[in-house]
Specification:
CATH topology of the largest domain: Coagulation Factor XIII, Chain A, domain 1
Structural class: mainly beta
Number of helices: 0
Helix content: under 10%
Largest sheet: 5 strands, mixed
Number of strands: 20
Strand content: over 45%
């Protein structure tokens, strides 16, 4: 369905806060995205520039509850609470998935209970056995344990980026604090992608470098003489010089002589299946993009490609034959009316 120009629409949803959500002020954001590419629409309002494809709609103040929540029946409850520091017990472990691939970002939730006042902020470490994944944080980041009261039950949530070189197999989660540690019954199964260290044959070889970590080794564009209203198929052959520290998205533009973008496709490489944070040095990754040409198009157009940091929306600089500082010119096509 399409919204007629000038028409308004109302979107109403009701959300329940999870038991144990720490008190504090939370910003509520929304975004609009393309269902075919999952790419968020860019926010044009100047006051919201730099909000990474989202716009703020409210500030929510969460208050301390009158009594600790009843967590009976909560998902991820341990067979029995685990004491990790004096007065600090781990009640539940709630990961957002049981299998993943290298480079993916996932969320891990822990449910805590205090038995006594915690005089100092207690650090915890979370790790994945048999891998390089390990980090130190607080039980509830932003709400220090020194503010907890005896009997409190609080939930911590942590974003985890899986290393590119993480080995395949089932790995156990571990949580530790002040010398005490527990190996949790939950495991994360790592499934490795098929990795290639030789390029796939493409019609055009290139040596375009994006930032310091990624090179475009070649591309194939079909058909060579597209008609107005048809679809272009662009195959890109990426090569990792190093593992990119940030997750990057590819954007492809078909641009008219006056600079107007008549067709565009944005996506994480390989149809969202190969995040760049999971690439290993020397690896090649094939990446296909479909671009729908408008029926009114006719004449000469440039095909440009670039990479953008998904977290900051900063485009990577291009070297080796650019159309501008942030986009590389692949070819010029003539669209038949």
């Amino acid at each position: 369905m399409y919204w007629p120009v000038g028409e308004t629409a109302q979107f109403v949803r009701q959300y329940m806060l999870l038991a144990g959500t720490p008190p504090g002020n939370y910003r509520v954001y929304a975004s609009i995205f393309d269902v075919s590419t999952l790419q968020p629409a860019r926010v044009l309002a100047p006051a919201m520039a730099g909000n990474k494809g989202r716009f703020e709609i409210a500030t929510l103040t969460v208050a301390r509850p009158a009594a600790p929540p009843d967590v009976t029946g909560e998902s991820g409850l341990l067979p029995s609470p685990a004491t990790l520091a004096a007065g600090l017990k781990l009640l539940a472990f709630v990961p957002d998935r049981s299998s993943a691939m290298p480079g993916e970002q996932m969320a891990v939730g822990l449910l805590w209970k205090s038995d006594q006042p915690l005089a100092a902020d207690v650090p915890i470490s979370i790790s994945l056995a048999g891998t390089e994944l390990a980090f130190t944080t607080q039980p509830t980041p932003g709400f220090p344990t020194s503010a907890w009261l005896p009997g409190d039950v609080w939930r911590g949530r942590y974003l985890v980026r899986l290393p590119a070189n993480i080995p395949a197999g089932a790995h156990a989660w571990q949580v530790a604090s002040n010398g005490a540690a527990i190996t949790l019954p939950d495991t994360l199964r790592i499934e490795l992608p098929e990795r290639r260290y030789e390029p796939t044959a493409t019609a055009n070889q290139t040596a375009l470098q994006f930032g310091t970590d990624v090179e475009l080794a070649g591309f194939t564009l079909q058909p060579a003489q597209p008609a107005a209203g048809s679809q272009l198929q662009l195959q890109l052959e990426w090569r990792a010089l190093k593992t990119p520290p940030a997750e990057l998205a590819v954007f492809v533009h078909v641009v008219a002589p006056d600079g107007t973008i008549i067709a565009q496709h944005d996506a994480v490489p390989a149809n969202w299946a190969r995040p760049t944070t999971g690439w290993l040095p020397g690896e090649y990754v094939s990446d296909t993009h479909a671009l729908q040409l408008p029926a009114s198009a006719s004449g000469s157009y440039q095909v440009l490609v670039g990479l953008v940091d998904r977290a900051t929306e900063q485009r990577l600089p291009v070297t080796g034959g650019t159309a501008d500082a942030e986009r590389a010119l692949l070819t010029t096509i003539t669209i038949q009316p």
